Amino acid sequence: MSTAIRAASILPARREEIELHTADGLRLVGELALPADREPVATLVCLHPLPTHGGMMDSHVFRKAAWRLPALADLAVLRFNTRGTSSVRGTSEGTFDGGDAERYDVAAAIEYAEFADLPEIWLLGWSFGTDLTLRHGCDPVIAGAILLSPPLRSSTDADLAQWARAGKPLTALVPEFDDYLRPEEARRRFAVVPQAEVIGVPGAKHLWVGDAETVLDEVVRRVNPAVPVPLPSRWDGPMETGDASAYADRTVAAFADLPTPDAQWG
Fold this sequence. Notes:
This protein is of the alpha/beta class. Helix content is about 25%, strand content about 25%.
């Protein structure tokens, strides 16, 4: 008998706690989730929202991706805490550096995925994680990138030009009511990347509360197009229930970024 897939549902997968080691000598904590009984078709390396405002490897969209996509879409999902960031998994060494020294964190995650022979490596950045993606993620082994709520806060035209030259697929999912960058402006800013696809998501906001399923569908549509979307809302098989109570003291608003100097919406 099938069971509804809910926010805390954990579908079967092979899950392993991992450590990443950066070129500047730090140990970062993370998790790799793989399909339970087969090899993955593609890989998501998740770069989380701003850690000074609650972002971490367990930010809700990434948690749901790790709990569902290995089973529903044959994907490997690699999540980790950037330097100085904490979650239930633990605290990564180092100190938040505003996206600069985090270049080593991104490189360590890509290196881990490459050395583990994970296939078709995609970066999935969210908010602050989109700036890490654009600034530090255009690596030769990366197949493409998907950006969730990109504020384009510290990313420069030179960063966008690098992606344009690389020709790698770049998709930006932009909420209609985003606090920092809305679809019309996003299309203008990303126009310098000919292959960039900007998708405005009606009714959505920066934190994707209530819209995680839409995000996962769009991610799967690009990373493993052989899988039909929308993804199933029910599961016929074993299922566990996750415990998110450790984050009960973190309000949803805590996952928001600080306003940019030219933000039009606060």
